[in-house]
């Protein structure tokens, strides 16, 4: 098991090559983005590469990140796009 306490956890949204959005959480964004793009990440993104990081929200710990990820996954596509546009301002 990794040391979850040393790095800040975050939730993120990726834009896949087919235009779909994927939400996840991690405590190492660089490594996780690389794994999505090399095909060793989530099954969903494996056939939708390359992916682009379009949103990142720091959460502090794993529990908060997983709760926020679940909340984001429940949003409609329209609501996710609205969330993305709030951060582009």
Task: Please tag this protein with its features.
89 residues; alpha+beta; three-stranded antiparallel sheet; 3 strands; disordered N terminus
In short:
The protein is α+β, with helices and mostly antiparallel strands. It is 43% helix and 21% strand.
Provide structural commentary:
It is a single chain. The chain has 89 residues and is an alpha+beta fold. The protein has helices at residues 29-38, 43-46, 62-74, 77-87, and strands at residues 10-15, 21-26, 52-58. The N and C termini lie far apart (38 Å). Residues 1-5 have low confidence and may be disordered.
How does the SSE layout of this entry go?
Layout: E1 10-15, E2 21-26, H1 29-38, H2 43-46, E3 52-58, H3 62-74, H4 77-87
Antiparallel strand pairs: 1-2, 1-3
Largest β-sheet summary: 3 strands, antiparallel
Low-confidence stretches: 1-5
CA-based shape:
globular
Average of per-residue pLDDT values? 92
Helix-strand sequence? EEHHEHH
Estimated share of beta-strand residues: 15-25%
Tell me the helix content: 40-55%
The helix/strand class is alpha+beta
């Amino acid at each position: 098991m990794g040391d979850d306490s040393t790095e800040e956890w975050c939730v993120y949204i990726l834009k896949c090559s087919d235009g779909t959005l994927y939400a996840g959480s991690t405590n190492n964004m660089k490594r996780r983005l690389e794994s999505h793009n090399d095909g060793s990440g989530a099954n969903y993104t494996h056939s939708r590469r390359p992916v682009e990081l379009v949103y990142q929200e720091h959460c502090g710990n794993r529990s908060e990140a997983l709760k926020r990820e679940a909340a984001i996954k429940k949003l409609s596509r329209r609501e996710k796009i609205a969330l993305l546009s709030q951060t582009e301002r």
